[in-house]
Amino acid sequence: MVRIKNIYGDITTGRQDNAVYQRKYGRGMRRAYKEVKPASSPLQKEQNERFKSAVLWIKSLTNDEKDAAKQYCKDHHVGNSIGEPIHWYNWLKNFVLSVPKFTLIDSVTNRYKVVHPGIFGITEFDSDGNVLFDIDDLTNLSDQRFLGLYEQVCNGYTSMVRVTTISGNEFEFFVSPSIPPRPDFLSDWNYYVDIPIVGSPDGNLSNYTMLQLVIDYVPSKMNSDFSDIRFSNFDCTVLYSHTLVSKIDEEHAVFDIMIPSIPSVEGTVIKCFYGNPNASDSSNPDGTYLFSDFFDSSQLNTEKWTVLSGTWTLDNVFTEYELNAGNPMGAVIETNQIFTEDNVIVECKVRSYDGFNRIRRIKLVDSSNPSIYNSLWMRWDQNYLRFIKTGEALGTRVTSDLSSYVQYHVIIGKINDDWYVAKDGSPIISQSNWLNISSYKLQLVCESYEDARFDDIKVYKVTPNPPSFGEIGEEQSYV
Predict the structure, then answer these.
(1) Angstrom distance (rounded) from CA 470 to CA 297
(2) CB atoms within 10 A of CB 191
(3) How far is residue 420's CA from residue 387's CA, in Å, rounded to a whole number?
């Protein structure tokens, strides 16, 4: 720039040809003309907005956070790309001005990496917007922790990764969900769907039976009797035990599934495989529940039961086999297995002749002192259902409305310190904090001259706020 002043001392301003004359500090100056265009491109406007955000963010920092930034720059000799020292203020601005760089390292496994000077959090979503993975506090200014590189394999069926920087700015990157290779033990299965599980706020659960998963029939792909249904973890490395509870051929089926681990946070996904016309039903009740007996044959399983009194047989008078106490009064049978779970449910089907003073019981008894005075009962006594403890009824007696040889679905259970009984899905009586049994057995009792029949017994864990199945995903094909 050259000072311009004529012989009269006048200072010229304005433009002439390729020269610009202007005042600066009261003196005339001349410089080459250069047209300055406004920031009109989207990227320029975006960067300008980020610059404004950077200034506002730095202003919002506490004095302690600013002092931490100053100290970090001093201790680590923070500089620019060519090693020149950089002011702490400009260093902080880079956290906002910099855009995270997202790279998909492996499209088969969906391994990715994120590069940014201040990565605060990573969140992964599926195509429905459900959170599959979430982590934060990776960078903390006060603690002088700064994460510049994050790398991992996508969790579940991830379709979008959200990166949050230290300044709170969010950036979203989309990926194509990968289809895992077909496992060797399911090499003849052609289709699968993903099924998300919403965890329980009660905490992480282990060896938990998820109940009542409804699978709709898929014409021309799924066996009409649902015999080809299989369940596995998301990585297809472990098959889960399941039980086909009920079905209507070519319509829908209901399954109970034993899940080895269910975290309290969202993100658990299991797979349901089908599409093998040669498959047969692989229901495994012993692996699905803590205890079960569906009495599918004419022989009593003495590995599961011990007859304490009376004669217990199995017959199929009512279409399918049932455990029959026969006619002797005082027939008692109990499980060999001892239960120690804090929260447990017993489900059972009961069929019994109705009449005056006919007593049939399902009991949880103290395994160390199996007295009738330290147990939870479901009792039919003169047409009533009731709780029994120390020989007296607790709560209001409720009419059971039993009819001759009608089969009822009954439940007794313990959740934390609450005990209750129910019939056909409707709670009848509940009592709190009145019975403390740390280890117990299941007993079935018939104290009448007419027979009492039991069937489809299953015992499983329960929690006050149980996990649930999410919406079943879209079908994926290997063919």
Answers:
(1) 36
(2) 18
(3) 8
Segments of 217-312 assigned E as strands: 230-233, 242-248, 252-262, 268-274, 291-293, 305-309
Distances in whole angstroms, Cα of residue 104 to Cα of each of 110, 163, 172, 450: 7, 14, 13, 71
The pair of three-digit structure tokens given for residue 350, joined into one six-digit string: 């009961």
Asked if 304 contacts 336 with a C-beta cutoff of 8 angstroms, the reply is yes
Task: Residue 266: name the closest of 125, 161, 159, 170 by CA.
Answer: 125
Distance CA 225, CA 274 (A): 12
* pLDDT tens sequence across 120-149: 999 998 766 788 899 999 999 999 999 999
The token pair that represents 112 in the structure block? 């990715």
Residue type at 50? Answer: R
Strand partners of residue 331: 446
pLDDT digits (tens, 9 = 90+) for 387-396: 333 333 333 3
Q: Is 139 left (phi over 0), alpha (psi -120 to 50) or beta?
A: beta
Across 395-423, b (16+ Cβ under 10 Å) vs e yields eebbebebeeeeebebbbbbbeeebbbbb
Domains assigned to the chain: 2-32 (no CATH), 42-97 (no CATH), 101-174 (2.60.40), 184-288 (2.60.40), 291-461 (2.60.120.560)
CA-to-CA dists, residue 211 to 214, 228, 332, angstroms: 9, 19, 29
Q: Is the pTM of this model over 0.85?
A: no
